[in-house]
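Re: the 275-residue chain
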Amino acid sequence: MDLVFSDIHADIVGLETILKIVSSFEFEEKYGKISRIINLGDLLERGTNPREVLQKMQDLSKNYPLISVMGNHDEGVLYKKSISGSSYSSVKAHELLSEQDFEFFHQNNDGTFGEQQALDTKNKLLCVHGGPINPQKITKEGDDPWLCQKTWQRLSEENNEFYSYYGYHYKASSAFEEGKASFENFIILCGHQHMEAAIQQTKNEITNIWPFRSTTEKIKSYVMQKREFDIAKNSNYLFRVGLGGPQGHHSGGFARPHFGVIQHDTKKVILFGLE
């Protein structure tokens, strides 16, 4: 079973809370043991414990198979590009990071870091931070190429696609078309926008399957809202995982950690959000 999280944002308490829940006896008894971890990006910025988060990820990589993609805030730190939203304390904590701390992010031959996306061909997963669209298909003259990268792309809340200084906004239909270049009957996993989403494509019909009533789940002392999705044959899906680290949210303490699990044997995706 895969553990999936995104947007930890240097929040070690948020990350450790997620890990504490999924490793508890109650959680394992009901859902199974975690056998792999999928990080959908933005481990850094906004929060105040980047070193602790990176060390925890290094430790996890020694004990679990790990899929990890870059987020736009990870790139902001590594490429020294300014992105708004970090407090003075967060900025100072990131300035103290050393080359050894950054070893979690492998450097590519062209000088870039990490992966824009990851493909799991066995389980037909396409993992990205923002979106799966090939930037060369969408970048126009005058656009900032960085804001068209997969780390910046955003699922559009409108009935059209457009570029803005928040990134390129894509429709679910474009994401599914991009996925079909690699798979049939696949799942796209993304984060970035801090809000959960679930979309299903059956033949040429696309349905928002998120708005159904959640159930309440209590594990240890944690109360969570849970939404469970059975993965149907001959369908494609896009799941957006919510904010993993509350320090990444502009409201700070009002946010709560979110995460998901993928049960490959029963073909389910389950998304959790702490209350």
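Residues 111 and 233 are 40 Å apart (CA to CA).
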